Each structure stands twice: as C-alpha cells, then as structure tokens.
Amino acid sequence: MQAEDMEVPIINNLIDNGDRQKPKGKDVFKDQQKESESSMESPNLEFEYGDTDTLTAELSELYSYTEEPEFALNRDYFEEDFRTHRGRRWIELTVEEQRAYVMRLLDALEVTDRDKRLKVARAILYLAQVFDECDTEVDVLHWSRHNVFLLYDMGIFTALLELLSMEINNQACSSAVRKPAISLADSTELVLLSIMYLMVETIRVQTEDDRPEWRTAREAFKNELSPLYNGEPFALLLFTMVTKFCSMNAPHFPMKKVLLLLWKTILFTLGGFEELQEMKVRGRERLNLPPLPEDSIKVVRAMRAASPPASAMELIEQQQQQKRGRRSRRPLVKQDSLDTYNERDPFKNDDARDEEEDPEDTDSGIEGEVDPMDRDVIIQPPPPPPPLRPPTERVNFPKGLPWAPKVEKDIEHFLETSRNKFIGFTLGDIETLVGLPRPIHESVKTLKQHKYVSIAEVQIKREDELQQCPLTLGEEEVEETSAEMLYLGMLPNLSQYVIALLKLLLAAAPTSKAKTDSINILADVLPEEMITVLQSMKLGIDVNRHKEIIVKAISALLLLLLKHYKLNHIYQFEIVSQHLVFANCIPLILKFFNQNIMSYISAKNICVLDFPHCVVHEMPELTAESLEAGDSNQFCWRNLFSCINLLRILNKLTKWKHSRTMMLVVFKSAPILKRALKVKQAMMQLYVLKLLKIQTKYLGRQWRKSNMKTMSAIYQKVRHRLNDDWAYGNIDARPWDFQAEECALRESIEKFNSRRYDRSRNGEFAPVDNCLQSVLGQRVDLPEDFHYSYEMWLEREVFSQPIQWEGLLQNP
Question: Which residues lie in Basic and acidic residues bias regions (predicted)?
C-alpha cells in the first residue's frame, strides 16, 4: 500500500476538471445563471458548528435505510428470549431483575455456537434501542440511556471487545473475499459494532439530569477506552479494521459503522473542540506564556456571512447592457457587511456614501477584467429599503476588526531590514535599537505589544536544546496523555492508517467515479435481493447519505487528530500532516470542492426513515414524490460540517508552508474556492478566505485587481499579521523547492521520534561501568555449545593475538 497508489487519479481528474471541461456555449452560462440565482436567493444559514450534531441525529446516522427490517428482527429475538423468563415488560422490572437478566445474556454470549451468539447480540442491541415499549422519541432516548449505562455496569462492553477481536481474525474473512458481490447480509455478524457505537455515543454525551453514578461510569469508561485493549488503545483496533478493509482482506466490514465508532472513540477519549481550547489555555499557563488574545470559537460564532460572488453570466450581461447604453445608476451594489464588526460607520454622512457608490468607481472594476470566468465581484440584487429604526439602535455595533493582530516572526525581519537601510549592517538581536530613527522605535514597540509566542515555538526550541545537549539536560519527562498514548500506538503504521482513510474519503467523495479496482464502501448498504423501482429510488438516496456520513466521520476524525497532536507536540502534528500531503490530500480536498457545493450543502434526507422516528411512529406510504421532496430543512447539517472540516484540514496542511501553498496555486484552487463562497455561512467563508489569502501574493497583480471584493472580504474577516505583504506582494522569483522543504521537515521529525521513542538509541548515553569486579561479576549469556570450543576460542582470540603493553602504558 504505497502513497503513489492515489497520486495519479486524483491529480489527473483535478486537472481534467479544470482544463478539459471548458464552457461550451450558452447552456453552461444558463446553468451558472440558475445556480447563481439560487445562491442569491438563499438566506444566511443558521448553522452552529460543534463537535457533533444532536444525539438523535448522530444515533440515526448509524443505521442505513436498508437496515429498517432489522429493527423488528432485533425485537423478535429479544422477546423470544425474554418472555421465556419473565411475564412482564422490560420497563416494569426492578433494577435488580434487569441486572439479573443482563447477566444471563452476558453468559449466553460465551457460547460457541455462532448463530446462538448472534441472536443474543441482537437481543442486547434491542436493549440499547428499546423502542417497542415506548410511545415517543423522548421515551426511547430515556430508556436507551438507562439501559446503556446498565449494560456498561454489567461488563457487556468488555465482552463485546473480545468478540470483536475474534471476528476480525475470523476465517469468515476468506469466504467473503471470494464472493463476487458483498451485501448487507455478509456483515450481520458484526452487529457488535452497533451496540458499541450506541454505548460510546450515549455515555459520551452529558446531560443535566445525569445521576452521580453515571458521571462516575463516564469517567471510568473514558479511562477504559484510552489506554488499553491488550496493551493498546481501543482506537488502534478500529484502525486495524480500516486498513484490513482497504487492503481487500476484509471487504465485508461495515466501514461506515467502523469509522463512526472510531471518530466517536477519539472524540470521547481525547476531547472535543471546547476541551481543546481549555487544554490550550492550561498549556500556555504551564509554559508561562501570555493568555490567548481571544476565544476563536466565540469570535467565529459572532460573525455574519458575506454575500455570495456573482456568476460569470450576470457579469457578461451587465457588460452588454453598458455597451448598449442602458447603464443603470448603480450597476454594482456594494456587498453586505461581512460581520457585525464591520458595519458601515453609523455616523458617516450621506455625501460620503454617495462618493463610495459613484458609478465611475464601480465600473472601473469590470473594465480591468481579463477573463469573465475568473471574475469575482461579490454583488447582489439591490436590497429592499431598510426599515426605519431609531438612530440609537445603530450605535450598538462594535467597532474594529474581529481578530486581534498577531506578530510571530516579524520583529527580526523588520529590524534586519531597518538596520541594513539606516546603518548598513545587522546585529542579530531584537533588543538593540541604537542608531535607528524614532519611528522605527515606535514600530518595534507596537510589534512587541502584539507579539504572540505559540506553544509550538516553545516545543521546537526545547527539542533543539534536547538534541544539542542530551547529556546535560537528561531524559525528557513525557506526560502520558491520551493523545501521547494514541500517537505511540499509531506511529509504527501511521502511513498505512492515513492512506487508508484517504482512500475511503476518495471513494466517498461525490465527484469520484466508480472504478473496477476501487474499494467497495457500499457493502453494508446494498440489499441482498432484487428491488423495485420505488425501492431503487430509496436506495439511491440511501447510498448518497451513506457516502456523506463516511465523509463526515473521516473529516472530523482527521481534524481531531491534527488538532490534538499539534497541542501535544508540534512534530507529532507535522508527521501526520506530511503523510497526508504525500498521499495527495491537498488535491483530494480540492477535488471534493470542485462540484456544485450549494447542491451538496442542501442535500435532502427521508426523515420518516430515520431512527427512532421510524420505529415509534407508524410508517407512511412512501411515493416517488415524497422521496424527491425529502425533508424541509434549509441545509444538511452533516454536509456543511464536513465542508468546514475539510477546509480546516486544508488550512492546517498549508499554513506557513511555502511549498504546500504553491500546490494550491498549481492546482488552480482559487476558482474552486471562490465557488465555495456561495454558501452563506460565516465559518465556512472564513476558512475559504484564509486559503485565498495565503496564495494572493502568488496569483499576480491582475488577479488582485480583478478580485477586489474578495480582497476586501479577506481584510474584513481574516486575522491580520503586522508587516504581512499578502495584499500587495508579488513573489515570482522565489524557487519552489518542494522536496528540500519537506526533506528538512522530515529530518527534524525523525530526530524527534528517534530521541523520544527509540529506546535502543538511548543506550549510547548510558553511564559506563569502570569497576573491574562488577564488570567481571556480570552474568553473560553464552550459546549452549560454547564450552565445546572454549579452548579453541582462547587460542584464537587471546593467546595468538600480540598485545603491545608498551603502547598501553604510553599517554595518548
């Protein structure tokens, strides 16, 4: 399994999409016009980003619509076993009676008969679902939560772990490999994954009415998952399932459930985004660093979305109208304010506004345009007149930019430039200001006020010291956090894990075309029997939903790993990033966004088929019209969540990396990213604008001149770096030496891993025992036949070797 396996198809398809599929006449422009009209009419998306969706939504995504008959099957197995022992309903039993019954199920899991064991597992799964005795969805969630904590308390999860390990190494894998078509029936034995997912997700979520014993059980479960199953974290067992599936050794694994369980396990054991923020604050306090200037999560939530960019068709029509002399007073309307921090000044007079909206100024942007397909003027139809409000309401908007500026590596560069200009030589420090004019002193003072030292810089500096002085500084004390234990377990096979995840992401991407040699991720959604036309429509929706859930799980999983490893140690983050880059993650994400992103964001689902709705309420008759209509939601939460996660991953891979930023330029990412601005959601637009910002200096002056509205949006929404030349720099002469930069980074990573994790290397620095008695008294293990040839060894190695005693007595 090599990284090169993925390289050619992704890059070629991306270039084909960019070069081969050129606009062909009016049809393309009509499609773009329709797409633009739909985006113009779309309101702001009321989306709140978080670790996960609601508990109900997360539980429903475990099941595909094809699995609907299995709910009744689980209930039947439970009732068949339960009624032979009890004459009452489950919810009528006392807690002690429920514990006794669960204990009996636990004993039944130990039987050797595979079919009997599967029936017991389905009965346990029903207890985790417990829907037949409830009248509402709230009751289902209440009793499911009660039963899950009961199952954990009785030790069900440990028994399931042993069974899962046995199933992974089972000989049934070989029979599944030989089958020409894998379907849902081949993965029924792995119903264990459903039980484990329900337990992990239910216990992970905290509620206000949790009992004290449940809170204790949650911490115990978290500690149980973190360190060890057979000496390694539980997540490693799931990573092994992923690599086995991608290497075609176990094609029957239900990969969607494995990925969901893996994501929720890492989310539970390592912590979500809010826990990360708290850990970052504590880490800075421990290193005596100043506190963070702001909470990034709160700042992003307070932002407002920008107006979407115009389509090329609208721009061409406006040009034609101007040529015909039908130019309106206001052909371009100034875009909406991008967020509450950037509202137009409420005290600005009307004359100043008229000057801003002068037609000559607005026309100049279009006249400087080279290619209308690359044009990016953010416009919208004239808005309705604003409602009359008292002037006091307009004063409430805060002033200033949303982010505090940061200075990281600018002071040294600024002083070096200033000294060369005014003195003629450099000193190599940032304290001495002798000989520099007063304005330079003020500039350095301002830069130092906003200086930001990251945890990563401290870690890199400390690592350099440990490499240079291993004996003086001694052994590093490594805190055994959950992230550290996971990294230690993943390190030997890290590249295989990363490549396997990216292969699954490629197979699930909506822009990917089916190939004969690609992996089959639909094994656990395809039914075994032939289906009708209506069922085929439902299956089509189910397949798309299945792929979307896989993308959601992989994107959230990769983002969590990157963020936790970056906080734990920067070089752990860098090695995962480098494996992602070498496996073509950057063009893969760009390929994902090279689609109608508005259509992907607004994908429809069949709500009546979601769990627990489908088992509590009576199922209505499904028709082709109802399937096409779908739900009434404004957007699909999981798809918007996936898009934001992928953009954040792309930002983390390319930030401060010149060679990787040039990959964005080479793969022509600017038009792809600009299309993503059509989604009117502030957080998604922020990360798109970040990606555009880092490459503007490489795109040339003409591109910036033609995209001034995008430049303005970047200025208003993205953090400023003092002395950053992103808006006016032109970098053409700097060589793009991708290999040299990555090799230097890899060398630092390997030194870090060797020093910290290679125990055999540390023997070089062990103290030497110079005492003759202790050296001769050590027991040396010799081969069994050594005493037969002992005399020959003495003659050859001792007596026949001349010893120069004089040389030993001389001083060296």
Answer: 17-37, 341-351
**In 395-529, where does DSSP find H-type helix?**
410-422, 438-449, 455-468, 470-473, 482-490, 494-508
Coil, helix or strand for 407?
strand
Query: Which two structure tokens, joined as six digits, stand for 167?
Result: 């199933």
> What angle (nearest 5°) sits at the alpha carbon of residue 436, between those of residues 430 and 439?
95
Beta carbons within 8 Å of 145's beta carbon, 6+ residues apart? 202, 207
pLDDT at 415: 87
What whole-number distance in Å separates Cα of residue 619 and Cα of residue 606?
A: 12
Q: 10 Å Cβ neighbour count for 764?
A: 7
Nearest by Cα to 163 from 116, 200, 221: 116
- The torsion angles phi and psi of 407, rounded to 5 degrees, stand at -125, 115
CA-to-CA distance for 598 and 37, rounded, in angstroms? 11
Q: What are phi and psi of 692, to 5 degrees?
A: -70, -35
Residue 127 has pLDDT above 60, yes or no: yes
Helix (H), strand (E) at residue 565: helix 533-568
Q: Which two tokens stand for residue 565?
A: 């490893």
Phi, psi of 424, rounded to the nearest 5 degrees: 105, 0
Structure confidence by residue, pLDDT tens digits, 715-746: 989 998 877 888 887 765 455 677 888 999 99
Looking at the DSSP bridge assignments, the partners of residue 454 are none
CB distance 498 to 579 below 8 Å: yes
Phi, psi of 451 (to 5 degrees): -65, 135
Q: How many residues does the chain have?
A: 812
282 and 651 Cβ atoms separated by less than 8 Å: no
What integer pLDDT is reported at residue 397 of this predicted model? 36
Per-residue pLDDT band for 352 (boundaries 50, 70, 90) equals: very low
CA distances from 792 to 692, 782, 799, 802 (A): 76, 15, 10, 16
User: What are 224's two structure tokens?
Assistant: 């149980």
> Nearest CA to 261 among 157, 134, 370?
157
Q: Report the amino acid identity of residue 283.
A: G
Q: Which two tokens stand for residue 779?
A: 């027991």
- As a whole number of angstroms, the longest Cα–Cα distance in the chain is 111
Alpha-carbon span 457 to 53, nearest angstrom: 34
- How many C-beta neighbours within 10 Å does residue 444 have? 18
